[in-house]
Amino acid sequence: MQTEVLGESQTKKESALNTRNLNNKKIKIRTMKKLAILAVFVLGMISFSANAQQEGKTKAMDSTAKTMQVKDNFKEIDKSQLPQAIKDAIMTDMDGMMVSKAYIGEESIFKIIVASLKDKSMTKTVYADAQGNWIKPKDDSMN
Questions:
Q1: Exposed, middle or buried by CB within 10 Å (0-12, 13-18, 19+), for 15?
Q2: Helix, strand or coil for residue 65?
Q3: SS3 58
Q4: Mind listing the pLDDT tens digit for each residue in 101-124?
Q5: In 3-state terms, what secondary structure has residue 69?
Q6: For 73-101, what is the mean pLDDT?
Q7: Measured between alpha carbons, how far is 35 from 29 in angstroms, rounded to an integer?
Q8: Rounded distance, CA 56 to CA 117, Å?
Q9: Integer Cα distance of 103 and 62 in angstroms
Q10: CA distance 23 to 84
Q11: Spacing of C-alpha 72 from chain mean position
């Protein structure tokens, strides 16, 4: 009779321990789910912030560009021949971009093809004068 009581008492203790362990596991799983969701949210915010900064720089560049007719008779030059003012403007206004090709046209207008440092296939054609001032062509079919 006493062995039955001991066995029953021990079974209740084991059952209580199993229940407690199961509850602890559930709490850990819920915590891990919350951490995973938080990590995804934080990564999304970082990505959004980086895109917003890049877009802001591009818009700032577009707002300071002067508009003029640009003729498409450019001669390719070495990237090193670009005036320092243009190199500085690219570094300032186009963070994450590098000069892929450079051309010079009439009236010292430069046509520059810039590529993304992350994905070289993403390019953009921009125009600038020798002083590093951006020029927005009236005819956008040249890009």
A1: exposed
A2: coil
A3: helix
A4: 999 988 888 999 999 888 888 899
A5: coil
A6: 91
A7: 10
A8: 18
A9: 20
A10: 66
A11: 32
